[in-house]
Amino acid sequence: MSPCRKKSSLNIVWKGLSMPSGGEGALTLTVRMKVSPEPESGEELISLMKRYREALNYAIEVVIENRALSLGRAHKLLYSVLKERYGLPSKVAQDCYREAIAVAKS
């Protein structure tokens, strides 16, 4: 059984469209949907959200202290820590340090 099930509404939002001069372009599509966690996985989702928040605060500090504004440098400093200390899945750990870089740059 899936940890999340879709509700009836689905909103599709166009995020951006870029067309280089050669006529070939990249289209980015952002899909927003409401999800409802299964009762047994609700606590797991809340736990992941709390761990992500803590990991993001840590990652922001590390990025700022080390001036790690490139993905490569942030990855070297943070990826293993985010996975091991905070128990984040790979993709979530990557999203976390990417968001930390964005915050540090702003």
Structural class: alpha+beta
Count of individual helical segments: 3
Strand order of the largest sheet: 1-2
Measured as a percent range, the helix fraction is 40-55%
Distance between the amino and carboxyl termini:
40 Å
**What is the percentage of strand-forming residues?**
25-35%
- Please state the overall shape, judged from the principal axes of the Cα atoms: elongated
The largest pleated sheet is described as: 2 strands, antiparallel
Q: How do the SSEs run, as a string of H and E?
A: EEHHH
Mean pLDDT: 77
How many structural domains are formed by the residues?
2
Number of strands: 2
Query: What is the radius of gyration computed over CA atoms, rounded to a whole number of angstroms?
Result: 17 Å
The unreliable regions are 1-21
What does this molecule look like?
- The chain is α+β, with helices and mostly antiparallel strands and 106 residues long.
- It is 52% helix and 25% strand.
- The chain has helices at 42-66, 71-84, 90-105; strands at 4-18, 26-37.
- It has a two-stranded antiparallel ribbon.
- The N and C termini lie far apart (40 Å).
- The model is unreliable at 1-21 (pLDDT under 50).
